[in-house]
Amino acid sequence: MPKQPANPEPAHPDVDSMLSRKFGKEVANYFSGSPLNRLAFLRADNVFLSQALKHSSTSFLLCNELQPLVQANTPPGAGKLAYVKYEDIKPVIGENPYAQTEKEIIEAYNSDVYVPQMIFLGIDEKDKNGLEYQGKNKYMGAPYFAIDVTPRNSVKEACEKLIEAQKAKGLDFSKGRVMDVVAQDAAVYAEARQLLDWNVRNPFCASCGQPTMSVNAGFKRTCPPTDKSTKRISNALPSTTEQVVDQSARPPCVTRNGVSNLSFPRTDPTVIMAVVNSAGDKILLGRQRRWPPYWFSTLAGFAEPAESIEEAVRREVYEEAGVLLGRVVIHSTQPWPYPANLMIGAIGQAIPTGETIDLGNDPELDDARWFDFEEVRNALAVGTSGLGEDAPAGYKEGGLRLPPNTAIANQLMTAVVNGFASGESKI
Amino acid sequence: MPKQPANPEPAHPDVDSMLSRKFGKEVANYFSGSPLNRLAFLRADNVFLSQALKHSSTSFLLCNELQPLVQANTPPGAGKLAYVKYEDIKPVIGENPYAQTEKEIIEAYNSDVYVPQMIFLGIDEKDKNGLEYQGKNKYMGAPYFAIDVTPRNSVKEACEKLIEAQKAKGLDFSKGRVMDVVAQDAAVYAEARQLLDWNVRNPFCASCGQPTMSVNAGFKRTCPPTDKSTKRISNALPSTTEQVVDQSARPPCVTRNGVSNLSFPRTDPTVIMAVVNSAGDKILLGRQRRWPPYWFSTLAGFAEPAESIEEAVRREVYEEAGVLLGRVVIHSTQPWPYPANLMIGAIGQAIPTGETIDLGNDPELDDARWFDFEEVRNALAVGTSGLGEDAPAGYKEGGLRLPPNTAIANQLMTAVVNGFASGESKI
């Protein structure tokens, strides 16, 4: 897979509080820190989903072309998601898409029928007016769903009307990458976006080529054994060709026998790494041609099949910069829902004979250099901003510029210059 | 996705040497530690691949139904892969599947033609009689390929003959999970297996439902814009129906516009975690019903979309055991090519008010219990073995049994009882 850019993005005022959130002392990066309990084990329980759908405490996040509805007039970096209620979305989804059991819904599958994609995101257990549901244990909280309201197919008009109603209230959908909402909302949106995108991106079975359907509240796609379609379109033929078939049975598919990973959402592990020289006083940073002048970040790339993360870190640093690493330690991780990455942040140290930079193997980078800790420490103080933003006050032209603290790259560099790689710390 | 078992497997004599392998001091788990340089940036260079294919130093790993050819009469736990030469596989692959450029091969795509899957695994740079290739830099080493010789379609007889020839030499294909070969061979096989399996498992485009083809030496599947098939089979219809079409253009597909993750191999991140109580003297272990008596291991499961690894660890431990975690730190990772997992090993600590075990949320486990460090330390000394094996000498009936040191679960428990979670160490 092509290399993963370091993705520096706008600074975020909420990150510092994330670093000491309720459950842990480890570094929690932007897009993590969800306030919701996903209740994964209730996703196939349509009695639960039906109650969650209609409860007075339930919130629905509308996404149009994967962009979320957001509140109006929020301060920069403190954006908030906006939610609607069941009555608002009823014209789009109908009375209750979970009225039957999942088994019954699969048996009735008809690939002619467009079903707006919904995702059950979880419950907020802090809401004391939330739904109470007695499963194997009792669960209490306000349910959250995401719904794809991109105007399409049979629900085009209903979606357009719903969208217009929100705009009439002064609300609108976010534009570009969503990096300006508060951290907890970013985590909720990341879940919504990654699941909606995965469903949209995978309408056919990679094993047999037939259309699949979404089940498990948006967390699984199944290849139904039957299809009630009256006009099943041959996928192998130009899409104008239509075939009328009089029976609903479909050819066999191996994904129906046992468990197949093709039925479940995909997440692509990536590596991103702060590389320290063998003396422990310099960091290796690289830059891409399209970045602003003086801007650098940590190296990064996709992990490959059948390599450990530690090996992936060594391979990427060798490919992109020719530098050879000794020890590699994992620092923290960051979900990255564009479209489905998991960024695994590591800190590695070069071996003394492997510090010469060589951009010739895989010419991904425009430049790569070793920077003194002191220069990086200074840039972390006065040179960070989002990629599209101006340098902050205090920055002097010609000085090193770096990504903001919402980027895991920034957290890795911060850890290194604060002593992560020194004798007193844990590397 | 369903939970990932801890996968305890047979002990391996080579693991201790892996722990201090050339490049790092961090824990290197079984299936990592490949001796090959993958040269990822040369995978689309068919001039390079053609030379690598025919070089005298080149080795081919045959896989039949994903099982590798292995050497005969090796001692237990010291198995070795067996390789063949170009002349052996020529009847299966033809003179040179890389004779044209990749662009030309895609333009000539014909879904009627069966192409045996090959994977370029990398070069062994320690072999001084290897291929020398001048790309942007000079690369030297002995090339390794994997090839799927499962007898199928047009190459059924050629594969059968090749397989018989190996058996006549006393060689045979491995059976069951390959955990008894030396560590470096395990890493080479893991790469071969995961890539061969991914190609076999994904013959159709999940975006448009049409057949795809393997490119980039087995590391990419592309959805060609044309298909020279004379009998393209409609995927939406029963597979007996054949359609004759007189033009090769196929419907549009979004994977052809820019980069799509659907074109690249999938790796599923999983979490596996040693959980320590808040006092720091007990470990939480669980067991599945199908395991032998007294056998326990660490908890594990698939990471979900848009959660950090640290969040995934907390969610899984809550779902499976009802225990609530504070800090979570990542320890090491393990590739797991059955079929495409990346196991991310972590160590987490319970919060004082969250230590009560509750198996009721998601009844995955038959039992879960807190074990004193002392009991785990003793079991690591006298109670480890592969799942299907007898307890080792020195084990007393009724004592705790644990997975062997090829399992990352074992490495995590070892780290904990050796002080990873104590004040002097890095948690």
UniProtKB/TrEMBL annotation, chains A, B:
Family assignment from sequence similarity: Belongs to the Nudix hydrolase family. NudC subfamily.
Substrates-to-products reaction catalysed: a 5'-end NAD(+)-phospho-ribonucleoside in mRNA + H2O = a 5'-end phospho-adenosine-phospho-ribonucleoside in mRNA + beta-nicotinamide D-ribonucleotide + 2 H(+)
UniProt lineage: Eukaryota, Fungi, Dikarya, Ascomycota, Pezizomycotina
Pfam families noted in UniProt: NUDIX, NUDIX-like
Cofactor(s) needed by this chain: Zn(2+); Mg(2+)
Enzyme Commission (EC) number: 3.6.1.22
UniProt entry keywords in alphabetical sequence: Hydrolase, Magnesium, Metal-binding, NAD
UniProt-listed SUPFAM superfamilies: Nudix (SSF55811)
GO cellular component, one term: peroxisome
GO biological process: NAD+ catabolic process; NADP+ catabolic process
GO molecular function: metal ion binding; NADH pyrophosphatase activity
Descriptive protein name: NAD(+) diphosphatase
InterPro entries hit by this protein: NAD-cap_RNA_hydrolase_NudC, NADH_PPase-like_N, NudC-like_C, NUDIX_hydrolase-like_dom_sf, NUDIX_hydrolase_CS, NUDIX_hydrolase_dom
Annotated organism of origin: Zasmidium cellare ATCC 36951
Domain Nudix hydrolase, residue spans: 265-393
Broadest EC class assigned to this enzyme: hydrolase
Entry annotated with the keyword Methyltransferase: no
